[in-house]
Write a structure and sequence with these properties.
The complex is a heterodimer of chains A (373) and B (598). Chain A is mostly beta strands and 373 residues long. Chain A has three domains: 11-27 and 149-295, Glucose Oxidase, domain 1 (3-Layer(bba) Sandwich); 52-122, Beta Barrel (OB fold (Dihydrolipoamide Acetyltransferase, E2P)), CATH 2.40.50; 308-370, SH3 type barrels. Chain A contains four helices and 30 strands. In chain A, a hairpin with an 8-residue loop joins strand 25 and strand 26 (329-334). The relative contact order of chain A is 0.16. With 598 residues, chain B is of the alpha/beta class. Chain B has three domains: 9-95 and 248-258, Nucleotidyltransferase, domain 5 (2-Layer Sandwich), CATH 3.30.420.40; 100-243, Rossmann fold (3-Layer(aba) Sandwich); 265-384 and 411-494 and 566-596, no CATH class. In chain B, helix 8 crosses helix 15 (459-465). The N and C termini of chain B lie far apart (58 Å). The chains are: A mainly beta (373), B alpha/beta (598). Chains A and B meet through helix 3 of A and strand 3, helix 1, strand 8, helix 3 and helix 9 of B.
């Protein structure tokens, strides 16, 4: 039988997940291997040097550059407040003295007795990176960051917008088929990661943003709603840097799509637990998918992860991912090797699926994905 | 490895962004022939993230279909002996997909904007623009470069003799980001510097070690003049030669092949050039893939190739919709479809790019998108295939931002003799007439133009094979690859529907066609007939309105398609009328199964 392999999304629990956390600049790693960390804990930090401000000190004081030293109130390396005196001339009998005040808060960097210039450096900006998820530090990337590992429930979405955030998981629908509407959202959902059903209205997304929910996970979203919400159309699926006040994760696709039973079950089971989520998606070679990560206790036993690299086999659970049966879930009951002609007259390799309702369907192999559990 | 000079069995693969195709060629008697083709999804996504897996799978399919033994585990068996082994393995690749770039310049509204325009002109998606005055802190810029994982960075900035320090600062930002391309280790990120000549040394110092740095002429040498062409050409070349072919596992694949892996457009371009040379004709070739659409043309011996990096039928399909606009796609759909439905279906294909249309409705939708991808790619090709290189565009500060390319395009549809289509959407269209119709609608050939397709999408394989064994490549190309669809006869001009358009004397037959109509005249593959084509006063076949022309018409598996819809082709604005026309034309050319017509 010819090989049939169809990529799938991970919807699983009790697996080991590793995350690399790197600073954008070289800096100090402030945790060590073996440390337990919370998602919000800072694991590495550095400081971005402040802006430079130059002052023509000799000119302003009306003295020669090599005379500067005697008038200085501050020396190189001294911290300085805005408005604080840096240098002054004594004047005549205490009168007519010239006083030079610092235009910024920061530090005196250099005083040149050749050019007469004073260089001040503004307050540095701290740059930090957090652990993203609760877990244990298992590796250190010297001067850059760490690798955090954790046992987690891991639900990959198919598409998302918005970057990393964290919040308490809060289902707001009773069924995976329900559409999220504004009435389901209120002030109590501040800082929560909302779990919805098959679709969401634009008004509901806006309300979720208004009440301060940090994330929203749904089965489907309409292309038109997303475009309206973003204010532009998605051309190539490269997302994650949107700044729309919420991270949105779609688990199934565009349109009204019931969330898969496995994803809905796992996410709702974690009601009240803390999740780390990321909407960043890049669909191209070297793919990135959005994710919901719920760290578990260290004592949970690891799930044996099935090896899907062998490809699709009879008995496997699959989801149909193209019209006219989009979203239907079933079990593979046959993988005939010969090519078949489908309605479009395309000659394709097919498989037979028995749906949850007991229907038998013949589908191109390319149009299913394995549900990795 | 020492290989036999006498090749009896040849294995070739093409790793596309979506599908990996393997073909097996064998010497039978004195000639080389295609034996079989196997395919498998390209495995650039998790859990494999290794392009060789898809290549192995496609070879396994070849083994199963032929009963030959080619693989010993994950190793190719050499040399061929009986039913075992092959004598050579070659491959092309475009698995890396589209081109997403970041651009950087000193002033957001000036050099950075010119840089963005150069990138867009080369067919790239501009992921973000970094500028000294973009109000971002340096570490935010660094984070952005890391998060977005661009395929290439175009750094500009400073007019010649202008600021050096700001340009150096930008290059230091890129250096600090230590950009890691999406394909991991062993691959250096291409960075093009097209800024102030005085900053070249400093930029070299900062970036030469960490990136694959190229330096080209300043794209804004003085404030009021823009010179985008060198940067645009460099982007285009680097993409084609480096970015596109690379994918996770590329290094491993490189070790397996007996000659260097060729980027797919390089291989297809070689084949198109060969056709033009051998027949001494003007040819255009098009390869519509999942992430990119490549167009090749040879006019009066001058070869041009363009790769539209973000026009394609799977990974880039959503971008086709965005660039073409909803209306332009909907106009080709012969049934009523609401915009939101089209939007959702296209985005679903974008997020699950490897799926295939199962229903007729979905096929029609995909073919509508293919028409737009082809049309937009041709537009880009026309803009880039111009005679003079390096012509600079004068630009005043008040002059706004539309860069009009200088130099007239070499593409002349009336002088074109043959269009060759390749790629999944054309080679695998369930009916050959569908491929012919898509080529006609999107390219709008004028006068008398031959149409052909790559039978099963193997031009890339034969292109790379031609570099090591010309005889094998040529024989397989002639006998198994090129399928003559027939000839398109299409006058330019416009007339109200129903008016007389053409009268064609073909042998003993006289065919009369009215404006707005399409007619299919059967003429078998291999047959040739002399024709006298008399256009009415509204139409022109190349000699002027109403002037008759004589031509030799070649048959094919589809036949002779007479297209009197006029040029430029305009579809009725009224929706019902438009659908009625589309269905009438579809019926005339027997494009879709009759019973299923909506």
């Amino acid at each position: 039988m010819a090989h049939a392999y169809t990529p799938g999304l991970k919807v699983t629990t009790n697996i080991n997940l590793r995350k690399e956390r790197r600073l954008p600049l070289k800096g100090d790693v402030i945790v060590k291997i073996g440390d337990r960390v919370k998602g919000e804990d800072i694991v590495a930090r550095t400081e971005l040097p402040g802006d430079v401000e130059t002052v023509n000190l000799a000119g302003k004081l009306g003295v020669l550059p090599d005379e500067l030293e005697q008038f200085m109130k501050k020396k190189e390396g001294d911290p300085i407040e805005k408005g604080e005196t840096i240098a002054e001339t004594s004047g005549l009998f205490g009168l007519f003295k010239t006083e030079i005040k610092s235009p910024i808060k920061g530090q005196v960097e250099t005083i040149s007795n050749i050019t007469g210039q004073l260089i001040l450096r503004g307050t540095p900006t701290p740059v930090e990176i957090d652990a993203y998820m609760d877990g244990r530090v298992v590796d250190i990337i010297e001067n850059e960051g760490v690798v955090v590992e954790s046992k987690v429930t891991f639900v990959q979405g198919i598409f998302g917008i918005g970057g990393e955030t964290r919040g308490i998981v809060q289902p707001i629908v009773d069924s995976r088929k329900e559409i999220v509407v504004p009435e389901m959202i209120d002030e109590s959902l501040r800082d929560k990661v909302l779990i919805g059903g098959s679709n969401v209205t634009k008004e509901a997304i806006l309300k979720a943003v208004n009440v301060g929910a940090v994330g929203l996970v749904v089965g489907g979203i309409d292309d038109a709603v997303l475009k309206d919400f973003l204010g532009y159309e998605i051309g190539v699926a490269i997302t994650g840097n949107e700044n729309k006040g919420i991270t949105l994760i779609v688990t199934e696709g565009f349109g009204k799509m019931d969330m898969s039973p496995a994803a809905f079950r796992l996410l709702t089971q974690h009601k009240g637990d803390r999740a780390s989520i990321n909407g960043a998606t890049q669909i191209r070679a070297g793919v990135l998918r959005p994710e919901v990560v719920v760290p578990l206790s260290e004592s949970s036993t690891l799930h044996k992860v099935k090896d899907y690299s062998k490809g699709l086999g009879v008995g496997e659970t699959v989801r149909i991912i193209r019209e006219p049966y989009f979203g239907i879930i079933g079990k593979v009951i046959g993988l005939p090797p010969e090519l078949k002609i489908v309605e479009s007259e395309s000659k394709v390799r097919i498989l037979k699926v028995k749906t949850e309702e007991g229907r038998e369907l013949t589908i191109p192999r390319a149009n299913v994905e394995i549900i990795e559990e | 490895m020492e290989k036999k000079t006498e090749l009896n069995r040849i294995l070739a693969t093409d790793c596309g962004s979506t599908t990996t195709k393997a073909i097996l060629i064998e010497k039978k008697g004195d000639e080389y022939r295609l034996v079989v083709r196997g395919e498998a999804p390209t495995t650039v996504e998790a859990p494999f993230e290794d392009v060789t897996r898809g290549a192995l799978n496609s070879v396994k399919e070849v083994e199963e279909l032929t009963g030959r033994e080619i693989l010993d585990g994950e190793k190719i068996i050499y040399p061929s002996k009986g039913n075992r082994g092959v004598d050579i393995y070659v491959s092309t690749s475009s698995a890396g997909g589209g081109l997403q770039m970041m651009v950087a310049g000193v002033v957001k509204e000036m050099t950075a904007e010119s840089a963005a325009r150069a990138a867009l002109g080369a067919g790239a998606i501009v992921m973000d623009v970094i500028a000294t005055n973009d109000r971002r802190r340096p570490h935010k810029r660094i984070e952005l470069i890391r998060d977005l994982r661009p395929d290439m960075i175009l750094l500009s900035g400073g007019i010649d003799g202008g600021t050096v320090s700001h340009v150096v600062e930008l290059s230091e930002t890129i250096e600090a980001a230590d950009p890691r391309p999406r394909f991991g280790t062993g691959y250096e990120l291409p960075v093009i510097f097209a800024g102030n000549v005085d900053a070249r040394e400093a930029v070299k110092e900062a970036l030469e070690e960490k990136t694959a740095l190229s330096i080209v002429d300043n794209l804004r040498p003085v404030l009021e003049r823009e010179n985008l062409r060198p940067a645009r050409d460099a982007i285009h070349e680097l993409f084609m030669e480096h970015v596109m072919a690379h994918a996770p596992g590329y290094k491993k694949l490189m070790e397996w092949t007996d000659v260097p892996i060729m980027p797919t457009p390089g291989a297809v371009g070689a084949i198109i050039q060969t056709i033009a040379e051998r027949q001494n004709i003007n040819v255009m070739g098009v390869d519509i893939g999942g992430a990119t659409t490549d167009i090749f043309s040879v006019f009066d011996g001058i070869f041009n190739r363009t790769v539209s990096a973000n026009l394609g039928m799977s990974y880039s399909v959503s971008n086709v919709l965005s660039e073409a606009g909803m209306e332009n796609v909907l106009r080709w759909i012969p049934f009523s479809m609401i915009r939101d439905d089209l939007g959702n279906r296209v985005r679903n294909k974008m997020i699950r790019p490897t799926t295939v249309p199962m229903s007729l409705k979905e096929l029609k939708m995909e073919q509508a998108l293919a028409r737009e991808a082809l049309r937009l790619a041709l537009k880009q090709h026309k803009e880039m295939a111009v005679g003079l290189k390096g012509v600079q565009q004068e630009r005043t500060i008040s002059d706004a931002f539309e860069q009009v390319s200088t130099g007239a395009t070499l593409v002349n549809m009336m002088k074109l003799n043959l269009i060759v289509g390749s790629g999944g959407a054309l080679s695998h269209a369930p009916r050959r007439a569908q491929a012919a119709f898509m080529l006609i609608d999107s390219f709008q050939p004028e006068g008398v133009t031959g149409l052909a397709v790559d039978s099963i999408f193997m031009m890339p394989h034969l292109g790379v094979l031609s570099t090591v064994h010309k005889k094998a490549a040529t024989e397989v190309f002639d006998k198994d690859c090129l399928i003559r669809l027939g000839t398109c006869i299409a006058p330019t001009g416009k007339a109200p529907e129903g008016r007389k358009a053409l009268e064609i004397e073909m042998g003993s037959e006289v065919i009369k066609i009215n404006a707005g109509d399409m007619v299919l005249v059967p003429l078998a593959d291999g047959e040739k007939v002399a024709a006298v084509i008399k256009p009415s006063k509204y139409f022109d076949m190349g000699e002027g309105k109403g002037k008759e022309v004589e031509a030799s018409i070649t048959g094919g598996v589809v036949g002779v398609i007479v297209d009197c819809r006029g040029r430029p082709l305009e579809l009725p604005e009224d929706e019902e009328k438009r659908r009625e026309n589309l269905n009438r034309w579809n019926k005339a050319l027997s494009i879709y199964p009759e019973a299923k017509e909506e």
